[in-house]
Structure formats: C-alpha cells, structure tokens
Design a protein that fits this description.
about 15% strand, alpha/beta, globular, about 260 residues
C-alpha cells in the first residue's frame, strides 16, 4: 500500500488561487497536510482558505503576496512560517506565460518574468532548505512546463525561465539528496486551466468559432485525445511530496497524456 499520508506535514504552495496550484492545495490538505499558500488576489485567497478537507486532519491557510517581488515573497514566507511552522514540503508553482514577440520584448519584460517564474522558486527554496536539512526530510517540487524542452517562440521567456527551473531542481537534488531533501520537477502538458479557457475564447473569437471547438482541435495532438485537469497534475505533486516517492530525486514527472515527443 502506498504511503501518501501527509498528516503532520506543513506544505507551502505558491501561486495557488486557481488552476494547478489550487488543486494542489486541496489535494495536499485532503492527504492531511497543513497547507499555506499565496496568491495576488485577496478574494481568491479568502475563497480557497475557507476549504475544509474531508480528511479532518489537513488544513488550509491563505496569504496575499506578489511573488515577483522579493520583499512580498519574504513577508509571505515569514508569515506562513510563524503561523503554520517551517515547511516540510514546498511546491514552487507560481508562474506566468505571456505570449509576445521576441523582437518587441524589453529587458524589463525578460527581467520581470525571470523574477516571478524563477527567482520566486529560488527564494522560497532557500528559505525552506535549512529546516528540511536539519530534520533530514524535505520535498521540493518545481512546476515547470513541456515548453522547457520544446520551446514555443511565442513563449520564449516563459520557456527559458522554466528550463532554468528544471536545471535548478536537478542541481538541488544532487546537492541535498544526502540530507533526504528530494527535489523533483512536474512537467504539465495541455491542462485545462483558466489560462487555456481565456486563450481558447480569444482564438475562437478571432476564427468565428467557439472555445470547445478550439479545445477539440488542440486535443487531436494528444494521444489520450483530451486536455488534462489540474487535479491530475496535483496527483503527481502529492505523490512526489509523499513517502511513496522516497527514492525519486532529480527527476521530471511528465503529465501530458503522452504528447511529448522528446525522450
């Protein structure tokens, strides 16, 4: 029987007001963890913070933070640590994927996304590592993207920052595996989140069709014939955060329905 009980564990999840982050918060709490999460929108934070997991042992606490800002990130980490205790599990999920033209991107565009997608993970991991190392147990999960391996020119800075996350995770796994601090990366494929709902609606309007037709067209390239759900990605996150993954370190878990062509 797989040991995926997280009772007594404290988990931090960044960028968790919706999509994969929200699903991860709920599922971690369902498995018994005390989950502290952050997002920028106070209304969304309050909504998710009210979640009561059926396990009865897990709990959720929410904080408003801008993870692209170093000071705001530190305030979240300090508040969460004071309220919930030091983190045993860290899920670096926050990120943005703006579509834009390389020739018209400024240095600030590159720097801003670098701060949000990569440096937030660096700062959170740096904060959590000492406790994890001291107790000889810790889990760091980076949420990246298939674009880290198959970059799309329209998402060039997104792909670059997420590829850097994969490399960072691998280096951390090599360095801190001896302390039983395991660092792994989740590689989601086409997942039906709010981001894709908006994109499908925009594409549909431009092509005089509807969003469901766009989802159906894009799904033809997925061997399973559909988009994944945030909950399916969250299941992978919980697995990597649990004792069921005790000998998985420095790996990339691809959750994309088989769409990736790389080996």
């Amino acid at each position: 029987m797989l040991d995926m009980d997280l009772s007594g564990r404290v988990a931090l999840v960044t960028g968790a007001s919706k999509g994969i982050g929200e699903a991860a918060v709920r599922l971690l709490a369902d498995h018994g963890a005390l989950v502290a999460f952050c997002a920028r929108g106070s209304e969304a934070v309050e909504s998710l913070a009210s979640y009561s997991p059926p396990s009865g042992t897990g709990a959720v606490r929410g904080y408003t933070a801008d993870m692209a800002d170093a000071d705001s990130t530190q305030q979240f980490l300090d508040a969460a640590t004071a309220d919930a205790g030091p983190a045993d599990i860290l899920v670096n999920n926050v990120g943005a994927s703006p579509s834009r033209n390389f020739l018209f991107m400024s240095d600030d565009d590159w720097s801003d996304l670098h701060q949000l997608n990569l440096m937030s993970a660096v700062r959170c991991t740096r904060h959590c590592l000492p406790h994890m190392r001291k107790q000889k147990w810790g889990r760091v999960v980076m949420v990246a993207t298939g674009a880290a391996f198959s970059p799309n020119p329209a998402l060039i800075d997104y792909a670059a920052t997420k590829a850097a996350m994969v490399a960072t995770a691998k280096a951390l796994a090599t360095k801190y595996g001896a302390d039983n601090v395991l660092t792994n990366t989740i590689i989601p494929g086409l997942i039906r989140t709010d981001m894709w709902e908006r994109a499908a609606a925009e594409i549909a309007e431009a092509n005089d069709t509807d969003a469901e037709a766009i989802f159906a067209r894009n799904s033809t390239g997925v061997p399973q014939g559909r988009y994944g759900t945030p909950e399916e990605v969250a299941s992978g996150i919980v697995f990597l955060a649990s004792n069921a993954a005790n000998y998985i370190n420095g790996s990339c878990l691809t959750i994309d329905g088989g769409v990736a062509s790389y080996i």
